[in-house]
Amino acid sequence: MDCNCFKREGKNCIEIVPIFSNLNYEEMMEVARITKEKVFEKGEMIYMAGHRGENLYVIHSGKVKITRFTSSGKEQVIRVLGPGEFMGELSLFSHLPLRDNGEALLKTTVCMIDGYRLKDLMKKYPAIALKVMEELSQRLEKVEKLVENISLQGVEKRLAESLINMANEKGEIALKMSKRDLASHLGMSQETLSRKLTAFQDTGIIKLIGHRRILLLDIEALENIE
Q: How far is CA 85 from CA 121, 128, 132, in A?
């Protein structure tokens, strides 16, 4: 269906995306005219590696897991995205097939922006292209940091840094992904992750609350883990 979210209460998927933040209402309407909306159920694939990317996907509501599979078939979680974030952006700059997969972790509403026509708008509004490049730069930095950590750091150090980075100002974590996916993202098995989290709790560094909440009790101790 065409994107009619401008008619709804609250912000639409175009307004909440930083790459369009410098556009005025009329300019956003130009983006809306090349946008279609689609709802994906939990577990449904939004796109898969090998597909020809023709859209920029913007998450209006829900949550999406971006993954790749190794040659041995092992899933590697790259990132988890939520409302206002986008994916499939490499298709805007390359004719190669997509290399990752986008899977809905919840019932998710996605605004799909026609990539070819968006490139025309980028020429008209260069700020959009600059914002996309800024986001790509930040994502590349995060991926390089992750690769460095997996290559050079032990599992405890990797986990400790990840916990610190995920925590809010109160030292609380509400996991955006399952522990299985978190383990994949950190380059360890789910069993290793569970064992290390339990060990951290036993030593009083953290407190596990249910399946998705973690409270950091001693951040300094986490920072000193080698």
A: 19, 14, 11
